[in-house]
Sequence to fold (596 residues):
Amino acid sequence: MPIYQAPIRDYQFILSELLNVYQQPELQGFDEFDPELIDAVLQGVADFTTDIMLPLNGSGDVEGCRLQNGKVITPKGFSDAYQQYIDNGWATLTCDPEFGGQGLPEVVGVFATEMKTATNMAFAMYPGLTHGAYAAIHAHGSDSLKAKYLEKLVSGEWTGTMNLTESHAGTDLALLRTKAMPLADGEFAISGEKIFISSGDHDLTDNIIHLVLARLPDAPEGVKGISLFVVPKVFINDDGSLGQLNKLKASSLEHKMGIHGNSTCVMNFDGAIGELVGEPHQGLRAMFTMMNQARLGVGLQGLGVSEIAYQNALAYAQDRIQGRALSGVKQAEQAADPILVHGDVRRMLLAQKSFNQGTRALMGQQALWLDESERHSDPLQAKAASKLAALFTPIVKGFVTEQGFKACVDAQQVFGGHGYIHEWGMEQFVRDSRIAMIYEGTNGVQALDLIGRKVLADKGATLKLWSELVKTLIERNIQNDAMKPYIDGLMASAADLEKATGYIVAKAAKTPDLIGAASMAYLQIFGITALAWMWTRTAEKALQCLDNGTDDSDFYQDKLATAKFFMHYWAVQTASLVKQIELASSDIVEFENSAF
Fold:
């Protein structure tokens, strides 16, 4: 079975030093927690995920979910583990105390999510989607809907789903056909079929609350005619007890590449009774609250699985003996040296390590922006944080899952032939992580969203807002010789991002198709530059701690070495990506359809 060690020390560094979250009096509720409390919470999650969730990961993959007599049965051990999960209160961490939550900020919740997705991505999806349903109802539901559903969703006694995709309508939700017919007392009859519904049915809870996109009879065509409805699997009586089954069911389970322990269902709604969430024809606005939560969660899947794959690849490289180092024998007492001595193995491991740690810091920053957007006492600061979080949403979803999958492939490669065999766990990590590049908007869609909606749509205003943060960091450290390797790398990547942005802006008006042709390379440039920004900030803090004296100098020295590697290995890639945009994008647009 694969091993896992939760990166608690890294979490402590990010929270206490890099993001300084314990000194944020302007953020409502931040004064109610301290390092001792958060350390205890994170260690508790680490213990649960390592002791309970991880042992079920491989067995859940082999057994998978099955549909019996119209009901979905999850793999052995999942139901008991889920009951422990809610009994321990892990479902309530970042939810509103008014509905039974603990009120912790997202900047703590993201690290709990990373540990869950690292140890059992399929299992973690059940509470993950539930949190998204909670967020959508909390933000857009009426008081009666909140009273009816939120307490049970917060506790985890009920789970939630999101129902968007139809067989003919994937990303293009304007094409969806599911109908909602008005009934008496403000209820609606929902009819239609949804596919690819994660956690659509299961045996973990007595009720499942579905959020469903559908059209009212008077709905205008396109996305402006979509409404959102909450549709319970089981009706709730006036006294809060469960009543009869609603008219919906999982008609089949998808046979898929990975995440076998999660039930991916085809859901049929046959006049199922639901209630409107928010205003008519404003369903996408409400659903995007859930989708943006989900996109952060998907990015954390990319990080979490990449981290556990790296940890196992490193352990294998330290133990597996094969060949001798090119510079000479390193362990003469053995028949061969550990494969960690070989340059390409070291390259793959360092690429994974520097990506994982830089991404973890970026995820913390993204979560802090989300917290600031909701909790900051200054409305202008809250608005700025909201804009930055929106700008970086396609980065944390698209770039992170793209590179996280590649990191898993590299980790599998370290194992050689053993990486292709199930018992080591590596091939499962590759299969599981692959879906993260597809759902919640494919990475191509994320790249197009980044350049089209997040950069061009506001004429670069939000990009400039972030660029000022980068510029301030550079100016603060430009005269510090110890910071030169990191500042040089950041400056080069930032210049490449500016160059790529300028090129696309100049061409977009006359050749709009070029935006899509250049968008994926642009996503990679932006993502690498974002991590260079986080690694430069990390190096700045590490040097400060070393200068001030510390009992943990090895940790900070390791941060500096890893940051340097990132600049020399990752940051230099942005230059070639700019060339790719400048030279290949026009070729992509001009290539004749008949020539493909």
Remarks:
- The mean pLDDT is 96.
- The first helix runs from residue 8 to 18.
